[in-house]
Write a structure and sequence with these properties.
The protein is an alpha+beta fold. The protein has 3 helices and 4 strands, in the order H-H-E-E-E-E-H. Strands 1-2 form a two-stranded antiparallel ribbon. Strand 1 and strand 2 form a beta hairpin. The longest helix has 31 residues. The chain is rod-shaped and about 95 Å long. The chain binds zinc ion (ZN). Zinc ion binds next to loops.
Length: 83
């Protein structure tokens, strides 16, 4: 009975050691290759927001209309500012 207890204890120690090693390896892999979710939020952070020169509405730069004198939210405001 005593040997059985020692064997069980040894198995528990090995199992715990393996589980710890697996989790630290996973952490290392995560640190080296960040998950794609982090990359996605990075692209969201780099999206620049500008204000229309006529109505001051804020919009992403890739949706804005660029004119000779500034950036606008719509074709109507571009025409209004530049004519
Ligand atoms: Zn506008």
């Amino acid at each position: 009975m005593k040997y059985l207890l020692i064997l069980a204890l040894a198995l528990a120690v090995i199992w715990l050691w393996k589980a710890h090693r697996r989790s630290s390896l996973a952490e290392k892999a995560r640190a080296q290759n960040p998950p794609p979710a982090t990359g996605k939020s990075k692209t969201l952070q780099t999206t620049e927001v500008i204000a229309c020169d006529v109505c001051a509405v804020h919009l992403p730069l890739n949706e804005a209309l660029t004119g000779g004198r500034g950036v606008y939210c719509s074709e109507a405001h571009r025409r209004q500012a530049e004519s």
